[in-house]
Amino acid sequence: MLKPRSTPTREQVNLDGLWRFALDGAARPEPWKGPLDTRLEAAVPASYNDLFTDPAIRDHVGWVWYQRTARVPRGWTDERVLLRVDAATHEGRVYVDGVLVAEHVGGYTPFEADITGHVRAGDEFRLTIGVNNELSNVTIPPGTVTVARSGRREQQYKHDFYNYAGLARSIWLHSVPPVHVTDVTITTGLDGTTGTVGYSVETNSSAPVRVRALDADGAEVAAAAGATGALRIDGATPWRPGAGYLYELVIEVLDEDGGGVLDVYREPFGVRTVEVRGTEFLINGEPFYFTGFGKHEDAPVRGKGHDNAHLVHDFQLLEWIGANSFRTSHYPYAEEVLEFADRHGIVVIDETAAVGLNLAVQGGLTGRPHDPTWAPENFGAATRDAHARHLRELIARDKNHPSVVMWCLANESSSAEEGAREYFEPLVELTRELDPTRPITHTAWLGATGDNDLIADLFDVVTVNRYYGWYIANGDLEAAEQYLEHDLRGWVEKFGKPVMMGEYGADTLPGLHSVWDVPWTEEYQRAYFEMNHRVFDRFEAFVGEHVWNFADFATSNGIHRVDGNKKGVFTRDRRPKSAAHALRARWTGLNGRKPR
Ligand code: GCB
């Protein structure tokens, strides 16, 4: 889905700010039918949970309502008027003056509605957005709503991060001309020093299309006519990790005689290649070693709300510590994040919101038999359909970002359990069909090993999440080292593919110190990383290390977490723990190359 952009033929109005807000039930029965009866105002973009002091709001399960008025610019008389919601977590319904204009399930991908028939240029309208945070067996991510003995509805889910909800990303009113570009796909290659750029433009008409590629200074470097085709850029500057050089494709839809321009859309792109060859991960033909993190969109007060100040600061810290990459664990991040990564040359593993498709985890923790994960009553065809829809939306949104070098289809699903292959094979096929250019991976949980995993061969890169020295052999780094080496060897020897660490980490309380190997201390986190790195460096096939986590983050209540997950290398307010300095020393020395 195209991002709204301002061009000579397109305009946009940002609708962020303070919106009237109410829980379902607190307002009138059909809140979209009139002004929302409430004194509350919520900030957009932000998760609503931590904005208010009322626990009934924080713990609410179900619909909430946001409302504001908006004015259609008076110059839009002859334009199509669209309303775009960058994210409504996890389900959204949009009403214009009481009329339902859009519905969408999936909390981390955008959706939009053509509201031309419902509004008039120059006039104001009432915009109401309902957002529901409920998860089920057929949502991605999954969850279950239970009713406690107290009668309170509670949302259970199988991931540890807090189920923040609301309008955490921007809302846009934007215009497109009646004849317009609806999609563009750009793929790039390198032929010596020449950049090859394949493009395919979709429009809502058969009007002729022409494209021009501009370099970063705005100079035209290639041009072509036709909705699909190829451009060649001689002496191209490639997009590289650490140097995010971007070109722009200017797409013009012309009137039938080719004289007038009906629509202009501009899409940035980078010229680069990505390939897995043997046990190497190659960017522009050169071996790349991932250093970085699994992250979260997470901050005090805003929750998962996008914030440009946090964006800039997080990327500063990534650079400071020598991270060249991150994974969008465990859901697609705001588009602004990917655009920033594009511009700054940070490599991204783009992950779906499929986290928690694993009932074996509970079994593993309690030792009790667990319900089958891949069963129709748990995660069956209907879940897979939702997963497929989500993949389509993710790839449609992010396919043109040069920073995205790999798709991660799921986090820690039950890949060693019967039925995993039947579940994943069609999703792998779909991903390859939607994007034949990027490698794919999924992260393997502790219960899946080289011996018992049923799906690793379907993917290009083996990514494993391992917590030896934390959940296993806690406090015994010697034993942990042996377990880890044995475990990694199993994957390396069996699959002959690049292997990387998707997660490794230890909860750490800043300020807690010890001269011994005491879990939760800053020294232990450092020693834990050192042990992991010693092991990684023994494997030729190892292509990267993503620490869990970049920063401490909010989790749901529970006995396993005290004030959130503390595996951050930075605290939640982004102060470095001692291990951050150790990582910095290692990573700045590597500079994207494998340790020797
Ligand atoms: C994992 C999950 C991640 C958790 C982490 C932990 O394996 O993928 O979402 O936060 O472990 O800290 O337990």
Description:
The chain is α+β, with helices and mostly antiparallel strands and 596 residues long. It folds into three domains: 12-176, Galactose-binding domain-like (Jelly Rolls, Sandwich), CATH 2.60.120; 181-272, Sandwich (Immunoglobulin-like); 275-587, Alpha-Beta Barrel (TIM Barrel). It is 19% helix and 31% strand. It is built from nine helices and 32 strands. The strands form eight sheets. An eight-stranded parallel barrel has the order 25-26-27-28-29-30-31-32. A six-stranded antiparallel sheet has the order 3-2-5-10-7-8, with no helix packed on it. Helix 7 (477-495) links the parallel strand 30 and strand 31. The two termini are 43 Å apart. The site of (2S,3S,4S,5R)-3,4,5-trihydroxy-6-oxo-oxane-2-carboxylic acid (GCB) has 10 residues, from strand 28. (2S,3S,4S,5R)-3,4,5-trihydroxy-6-oxo-oxane-2-carboxylic acid binds at residues 159-160, 330, 411-412, 465, 503, 548, 565, 567. Keywords: Glycosidase, Hydrolase.
